[in-house]
Amino acid sequence: MRITQFHITRVAALDGLRLPDDADLLLVFGARRLLQDPALFPMLRLACPAALIAGCSTAGEIRGTEVRDDSIVLTAVRFAGTRVRIVAAQLDSAADSRHAGEALIHQLLGDRLRHVLVFSDGLAVNGSELVQGLRATLPAGVNVTGGLAGDGADFGATVVLANAPAAPRQIAAIGFYGDRLRVGCGSVGGWDTFGPERRISRAEGNVLFDLDGESALTLYKTYLGSQADRLPSSALLFPLALHLPDSDTYVVRTILGIDEERQCMTFAGDMPVGAFAQLMKANFNRLVDGAIAAAEDNRSQLDGAAPELAILVSCIGRKLVLQQRIEEEVEGVAEVLGAGAMLAGFYSYGEIAPHSALTRCELHNQTMTVTTFSEE
Q1: What does pTM read for this prediction?
Q2: What torsion, rounded to 10 degrees, do the Cα atoms 257, 258, 262, 264 define?
Q3: What is the biggest distance separating any 2 CA atoms in the chain, rounded to whole angstroms?
Q4: Which residues are within 8 A (CB) of 254 and not within 5 positions of it... i.e. 6 or more apart?
Q5: Are 203 and 193 within 8 A, CB to CB?
Q6: Tens digits of per-residue pLDDT, 202-243?
Q7: What is the C-alpha separation between 130 and 133, in angstroms, rounded?
């Protein structure tokens, strides 16, 4: 596997770069305004004529141990013995999410499929339904990782590249095929729960109305105190731990928006009636330790092989909490994976990964997910 990486702050800067013209895959993570520049995709296609070009807008770009904003990170990969394929789906509404996930996997099914990497619109999708669709027909031993595109802290619109110019309401899925590829994946949070668990008594999909028969928004504001005046952005600092009825573990859910008139909150994934929710708050050291744990879980899955490429998808909420310390979680991952691993990724509106190799993929919020690739 041969990997080269570039960082630019202007699309015009591509003129001065020598991208590898034999790349099989070009990953593009960057600010929405740059990805929507009409000159970007034609320039990338000219530079990498044979590569599959995929990526998304972000809430921050990861390049090695650096976290950047308002830029583009390009990662070109030439595989030694792995084949890649890309498919895309368009979302007319969030109700299409599960069907889109099922359709994407169906198109990618094939001999020696090893892994699927997904980049989805971050606002027009129901992430929980998308993940349920993705895993519905996934072959045994194959996992899905990836994330939901971001738009900084603006939550205005997100875009995805799927071997075509960046577009909203789109999902890209990349299939990796071949016996030489080794893949590791994992996801760890690091948030602390507080307050009582409350039962979700009224919800519609990813819209939450009532907890224990009371307005969820009112309860949430009570706990936030003075932070309630800054909703919905302050909600990124206080996600919910969701204990699903069919799982021994919990997932974390972040609020994407509130509706004062309807007294409800919209989350990145489903809020099923009957599940129990509990508030969470940040613990600085545990957030960094969580990122390191995700990397350690990856190394244990590679059968002794050294990771060559690591795709990191972390949550915008972690970035807002860690602030100047944000690079500590990336540095922790890099230290575990070793100097031979090239790190690329982004800060997202939702992360897709299993907790470990032995669990199914889920939609997460407020986690650091790590996917590592190595070829024999």
Answers
A1: 0.86
A2: 90
A3: 60
A4: 235, 236, 239, 267, 268, 315, 317, 349, 350, 365, 366
A5: no
A6: 999 889 999 999 999 998 888 888 888 888 777 777 888 888
A7: 5
- Identity at 359, one-letter amino acid code: T
Structure tokens at 242: 């969701």
Indicate the burial class of 178 (C-beta count within 10 angstroms; 0-12, 13-18, 19 or more): middle
pLDDT in tens, 61-72: 999 999 999 999
- What values do phi and psi take at 180, rounded to 5? -85, -15
- Answer whether 153's CB lies under 8 Å from 317's CB: no
Find tokens 């990349």 and name the residue.
174
Give the whole-angstrom CA distance, residue 135 versus residue 359.
Answer: 11
CA distances from 42 to 70, 119, 317 (A): 20, 20, 33
Q: How far, in Å, are 25, 43, 70, 164 from residue 39 at the CA level? A: 20, 6, 17, 12
CA distance 37 to 258: 31
Sign of the alpha-carbon dihedral angle for 158, 161, 162, 164: positive
Structure tokens at 369: 């997910």
Domain boundaries, the chain: 2-188+285-375, 192-279
